[in-house]
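Researcher: Good morning. I'm working through a list of sequences from a screen, and I'd like to move beyond sequence-only analysis. For each chain I'm collecting a predicted structure so we can compare shapes side by side. This is the next one on the list. No need for commentary yet; just the structure.
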Amino acid sequence: MEPAAKLDPITETALRSLHDIATSEPVSWMPQTWGWGVLTGALLVMLALTGIRWILRYRADAYRREALALLTVIDEQLRNPATRRDGIRDLCEVLKRTALAAWPRAEVASLSANAWTRFLQEHDPDGAGHALERLLDDFEYHGAAVVADLPSNVCSDLVAAARNWIERHHVPA
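Model: Good morning. C-alpha cells for this chain:
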C-alpha cells in the first residue's frame, strides 16, 4: 500500500479550520403567548365537562340498559306459546319498573288501565304507545289459551314497541 499523499500545508490548514454544518435549534411545541395557554385550558375544561356529563348520563340510563336486557329474555318467552302468558305479564312488569325508575313513585305507582296507557303515550315521542295500549288493554287480561294462540308477529310487535318506549321515552328534568 502506498502511504497517503502528503498535502501541502495550506490545504492542510484550510481543512483543519472547517467546522461541522451548523443547524438551528428545533422549534418548540410550547405556546409562545399566553393566549394559547388560555385556549388550551378552556379546551381541557370543556373536555372534562363533556366527560363528566357523559358519565352522568350513562349512569342515569342504567335502568334503560337493565330493562332492555330483560326484554331479550321476555322476547324468548313470547316466542314459545307455552310461556307466552308469563312473557306478557313480565313485559308489563318491566314497563312499570322502567317508569318507576324514571319518574317519582307517587306519580307512577298507582297508574293502571287507561291512566297507565295514557301515561305511556304521553311520554312516548315516537307514538309506540298504540301497540302498548293493545297489550295493556287486551292481552294482559285474557286467558292463557287466547294468549297462546297469538300470532308471533303480534308478540314481536309488542316487544318492539316496548323496546322503543324504553329507549326513547322522555323524562322531564
